Each structure stands twice: as C-alpha cells, then as structure tokens.
Amino acid sequence: MKMKNEHVFKLSEINAYFFDLPFVNDIARQGLIRLDECISILNYYPQTQNSALVYQFQNIKSVVLENEKNSDIVRNTLSKVPSIINDIRSYF
Question: What is the distance between the terminal CA atoms of the chain, rounded to a whole angstrom?
Fold first, then answer.
C-alpha cells in the first residue's frame, strides 16, 4: 500500500519543523502535538502499525513528557525525529 499524498505532505512539514527547531517556550507541547500526528499517520497503515518506528516515536514522546521543563533535553530529543521520519520510506 502506498502512502497518501496528504500524509506525505504532513510528514514533510513535520520533518521540516523538527529539522530546524524554533526557540520557543512551549517546545515540548508543540513537539508532542507533532509526534502524535506522526504516530497517527503510521497507525493508519498496516505495514507500520506496531512497527519499530511507532515504538521510537513513543519513546521520544515519553522522554519529552518526563523532561518538559528542561528545554535542552527536549530540544536534543526532538532533534532525532527527522532521521526516524526518513526511515518511513523503507516501509513503502
């Protein structure tokens, strides 16, 4: 099954956001919203449901939740997201 264009576009937007993270106070909240979108997109497709990619996004999400007040840890953790998004191509 091929990925829908709307999902490809959304993942590209999310990838660009995480590639060049803004310096804002609520980076954890904004990052969590985008991580949830990535997980939702991956859960839409049978080949990526319960995959290592979903597990990686969930791990990043838990680290961000645990360290919401420490923007340095959050920023460092969220900077790993683009490499995971690039790995999605191998499933399609």
Answer: 7
pLDDT lower than 70: segments of the chain: none
- 88 class by beta-carbon count within 10 Å (0-12 exposed, 13-18 middle, 19+ buried): buried
pLDDT, one tens digit per residue, over 7-17 is 999 999 999 99
Residue 70: partners with Cβ closer than 8 Å, 6 or more residues away? none
pTM of the prediction? 0.92
Q: Which residue type, as a one-letter code, is found at position 72?
A: D
Q: Which long-range contacts (CB under 8 A, 24 or more apart) does 64-73 make?
A: 64/28, 64/31, 64/32, 64/35, 65/28, 65/32, 67/28, 68/28, 68/29, 71/25, 71/27, 71/28
Distance (Å, whole) CA 51 – CA 58: 11
Contacts of 82 (CB under 8 A, 6+ apart): 15, 18, 19
Task: Return the structure tokens found at 77.
Answer: 């953790």
